[in-house]
Amino acid sequence: MKKLIAMMLMLTMVFFIACDKDEDNNEMSPADAKVALEELNTDMSGYFDEMLNAEGVKAMEALMELPLDPFSGKKSNEPSAVLLNMQKLILPSNYERTKIALETGLFDFDSNVGTYTWNATYEKWDVAHGVPSYKIIINFPTENSTTNDATITISSYDETNIGEDYYPTELAADLTIDNIEYVNIDFSASWKTGGEPEILSVEIYLNPFTFGGSFSNIGTTASVNFDIDYEEILIFAAGVGATFETTNWDNPPLNINGYIQLLNVKVEVDVNFENIAQIIQDVENGTSTATDLDELAEAINAEIDAYVSVDGVKAVDIEFEFDRIFSDYSIPIDEEIGLYININFVFSDGSIAPAYPYFEDFATDIEEFFSFLEEIFSGDSM
What we know:
Elements: H1 2-12, H2 30-38, H3 45-52, H4 55-64, H5 81-90, H6 109-112, E1 114-119, E2 124-129, E3 136-140, E4 150-162, E5 165-177, E6 180-191, E7 197-206, E8 209-218, E9 221-230, E10 233-243, E11 255-262, E12 265-272, H7 273-285, H8 293-301, E13 304-310, E14 313-323, E15 331-334, E16 339-346, E17 352-354, H9 356-378
Parallel strand pairs: 1-3
Antiparallel strand pairs: 1-2, 3-4, 4-5, 5-6, 6-7, 7-8, 8-9, 9-10, 10-11, 11-12, 12-13, 13-14, 14-16, 15-16, 16-17
């Protein structure tokens, strides 16, 4: 699995993760590039632990564990949508799939404005409806606290229903502990009738992390962008942009451009799928001008612009080649006829080296990062 990810990452990442490429005319020498690639350090494990143990995350968990929901008055295993959505949004899970609501109808923000204060003696919420008249304030204790040292302020919240599901369209909220801000959420979205996001924007502050994301799915174009900063240092960024021939997206995209960055290592790809599809069609029709596999690979590589940069400086280009001989770094295309693909790094002097040995650890870290996000979204780590 790791080898497949390592070798195909540069070509397949763009299907799920992008913005326009940064223009950079600088390029490393082959010797410098090899040293930089051999010394890549993209281990994110320490950041994972810090995210899950952030004070804001723990405070939300403490709120959700209280016996009663502040709005519904029901047991905490039946919380209101606004709190569940807030908890989901704090960590960088799959924002476009955020849709939770357990009320029998839409959550009415205006009817719920006021102050909710946890009464530990009687294990109930003391509610001052309409005070204040324009926002919701929730005072509650963090874990092991004997006082209501945490406060959530919800400035706005709205949702819409599609069928039997409820989708958040707006959420602005913050969480403080002892008057220090640990969480700030600014979320907005519009949804299509099938429940897919049309436009989505999210900005989350989870001390000391900042998460930003956007999604656009309009007409024949779609784009997704996502980034995570740690104390103003970019530790992860990814995205994808795609153009389709029609609005129903029945056919493959005409073009995909994407990037993925982990700490100081960035991989960027721009693929002209329309031209590649025509090249393959010509081969199938017997009208291709390519006389051998090398010429076919050259034609396809001309439609793919892919490279790796380290600390903002281009290190290598990425190209692939067809091969009839299997190696430790090969990806099988058709083993019956003995056809394989090799992903290579091309250095500034034209020399070539297999990409896999350099990117094995990078691919492992990418795999672990997305597994981490999936674990968060599934709720296994909460």
